[in-house]
Design a protein that fits this description.
Elements: H1 3-28, H2 37-60, H3 64-67, H4 70-94, H5 108-128, H6 137-161, H7 163-168, H8 173-193, H9 201-212, H10 214-232, H11 236-257
Helix pairs in contact: 1-4, 2-4, 2-5, 4-5, 4-6, 5-6, 5-8, 6-8, 6-10, 8-9, 8-10, 8-11
């Protein structure tokens, strides 16, 4: 591990550790009157699941130089740790706070939304770690591109439908489940779009457009679905079917593309 990689690792560890230490401390101070225990347990499982997705990818599908070096495994895990902190902060800016909405309020819809945010991000991060690359930049660049696109999609969806208001103010569990499924679908597609051996910046951008375009196709579909379902409300069963359809479509696309 060279000096630049060590700096990235130390920065990611320091910022991520500080963010999550403060987050957990604040969550722990939540009044028991709102019964946060179950919500915290679900969020903890989602967070650990997100880390597990990245860890398994590093052990199985990353560059052999990474798989065979424990320091690189730790490095990319702390980068994932930081990525989850960044999207959590961005989610709060967009209108869905993991702390205020999912922990401090009895709002299962918010828990679904945050779980989707974390797991979708993990899929993006995991995809960026698949394949060979000459430097750490060949992982961090695609990672930033996938996670950035993921957050942009969240922002556009919210601006077009107000889905985060449905989740936070209306506490619409159906909206939360739909957001969860859509987030997983976007994460699957974007993660696959940045997976593979590094060849060049131009080739990476070309593959990102070629393999990732279905996220753009899913966006207007999701907007239409939200505008149809949300004003009248939807049953949890309908929401689960919609979320499952999103994930199935994304999984089908990834399977059709095959190994990166």
């Amino acid at each position: 591990m060279d000096g630049g990689e060590a700096v990235v690792g130390l920065f990611s560890a320091a910022v991520g550790l500080t963010y999550w230490f403060l987050w957990v401390a604040a969550a722990g101070e939540t009044t028991l009157l709102v019964r946060p225990g179950l919500r915290l347990a679900v969020l903890a499982l989602a967070f650990l699941g997100a880390i597990a997705i990245v860890w398994a990818t590093l052990l199985i599908a990353a560059d052999p130089a990474v798989r065979d070096n424990s320091w690189y495994i730790v490095l990319f895990l702390v980068v994932a740790w930081l990525s989850l902190a960044v999207v959590t902060a961005a989610g709060a800016i967009l209108g869905l706070s993991a702390l205020d909405d999912a922990v401090r309020k009895p709002n299962p819809a918010a828990v679904c939304g945050i779980a989707g945010l974390w797991l979708g991000t993990a899929l993006c991060v995991a995809g960026a770690n698949v394949g060979r690359g000459d430097t750490i930049g060949t992982t961090l660049g695609p990672l930033a591109m996938a996670v950035g696109a993921f957050l942009v999609l969240w922002g556009i969806l919210n601006a077009a439908t107000g889905i985060l208001t449905s989740v936070t103010s209306d506490r619409d569990v159906g909206a939360g489940i739909g957001l969860f499924g859509l987030s997983l679908a976007w994460g699957l597609i974007l993660g696959r779009a940045v997976a593979g051996d590094w060849e060049s910046t131009a080739r990476t951008l070309e593959d990102f457009g070629h393999d990732g375009w279905p996220v753009v196709a899913l966006l207007p579909i999701a907007i239409l679905v939200e505008r149809i379902l949300r004003p009248a409300g939807s049953s949890i069963g309908t929401a689960v079917l919609v979320a499952g359809a999103y994930v199935a479509a994304a999984a089908g696309w990834v399977i059709w593309l095959g190994r990166p």
